[in-house]
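Final report, Chapter 2: Outcomes

The project's central promise was a pipeline that accepts a single protein chain and returns its three-dimensional structure in a standardized token representation, suitable for archiving and comparison. That pipeline is now operational. To close this chapter, we reproduce one record exactly as it appears in the project archive, with the input sequence first and the structure output second.
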Amino acid sequence: MQNKLRYFSLFYFFYYAALGAYTPYIGRWVDSLGFSGYVVGTMLGLWYGTRIIGPPLWNSWIERSKYPGYWFVIGTLLTLLFFAGFTLTKTTTQLFIVMGLFGFFYNAVMPQFEAMTLEALGKDTHQYGRIRVWGSVGFLIVAASYGKLLDYFGNATFPWLSLPLFIATLFAAWPHRFDPAPVIEKAGVKFIELWRRKGVRHFLFVVLLAQLGFGAFYVFYTLHLQANGHDGAHIGMLWGTGVLIEIAMFWQAPKLISRFGAYRLMIFCLLITSARWAVTAFYADNFGIMLLAQSTHAFGFAVFHACCMYSMGRLFPGHLAKAGQSLMYGFSSGIGGVLGAVLASWMWDIGKGQAAFLASAAVSLMACALFVSRKENSATVRE
């Protein structure tokens, strides 16, 4: 059993290692090609858009198959092939097409793999964290080192430097070609049933705004630091710091929720995130201050995410849990991600990084104001 689970850890490692190259540095590569902030933002918007449509479409295809493991390998192969397409792109249209196809398959295969992982664990779901943490380790190693590599080899080498990670991901997928199909539960929960539940709509708009506020960070953080004089080594160190402290805080989040309560923690997380974006807007040239600002990622992402999961258990109890998770994912990572990329690219073209991060600070503050404006949020999260 343990040997089999190592194969799951291996896939998580390389999948998120590839993401550690893609997320922080694809904007730097596109910018080096001479494209505008609008193009960078639109590409990331397409990325988040495929998070909405990719998983359900892919699932509708593979659930009819007797060999879902083979489809998983095929999806990983197509991810590799379409990412390789970036080595041939020369126009805006080509970039958008390749991004759409690459993002579709890359975002489609992970939910399937998550289900396969849980199926393999059976009753030992408590071991999931030990397997999934290797994904964070992979992201951390690559995000922290790729900036220096691009400084040495040049921005133009980004697709070529990243391709080995996607090849390794394909090899890590191969042992799972015979994995059985996960059991699909037919919950029969309708969207309107979830939407009408008390406190749900306001909570979803809070998480949407919270994710929207991260738009400038995910799209332009690397470019903003680069414009303020930081080299690849410093940029990689800042990305790595955020991920490392995020991993550490995930272990402490349950204790913090027990002590302070999810309601007060969510308010604090949104306020400190707003302050983080404001500091990033004005003091991006100071490495020490940026390092301190990145350390707040522990609250802005890790603790806030844990509080959201805690709150989801009260908003969507029992058989509503899975459908509720999908709904929140669609609002936050899906719609919030797309709108965040659009807003960030618009503000970047107006006033570069300072304008983009000030807009993010304002959005995070709006999320906090919306959250505290409804009494049912307080009652639900404190319950």
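Archive annotation: The mean pLDDT is 87.
This record, like all others produced under the grant, will remain available to the consortium after the project formally closes.
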